[in-house]
Amino acid sequence: MNDMLPMNGDIYIVRDLANKNKSQGANDVYERSILNNGVRVLSEFVPYVRSATIGLWVKTGSSGETSENNGIGHFIEHMLFKGTEHRSAREIAEEIDAVGGQLNAFTSKEYTCFYAKVLDQHLPLAVDVLADMFLHSLFDPVEIEKEKGVVIEEIKMYEDSPDELVQDELARAVYGDRSLGLNILGTKDTVGSLSRDDIISYMSRFYGSERLIISSAGNVPHEKIVKLAETYFHDLPRGAGETFQTDHEMAFRHIFRDKDTEQIHICIGLPGLPWNHPDRYALYLTDAILGGGMSSRLFQELREERGLVYSTYSYHASYENTGVFVIYAAASPYNAETVLALIKEIIQDFRTNGPSPEELSRAREQLKGSLLLSLESTSNRMSRLAKMEMFDDRLYTPEEVIGAVDRVQMDDIMRIIRKIAGFDQLSLAIIGPDVKKSQKRLLDSLYS
Question: Which of 31, 44, 65, 77 is catalytic?
Answer without folding.
Answer: 77
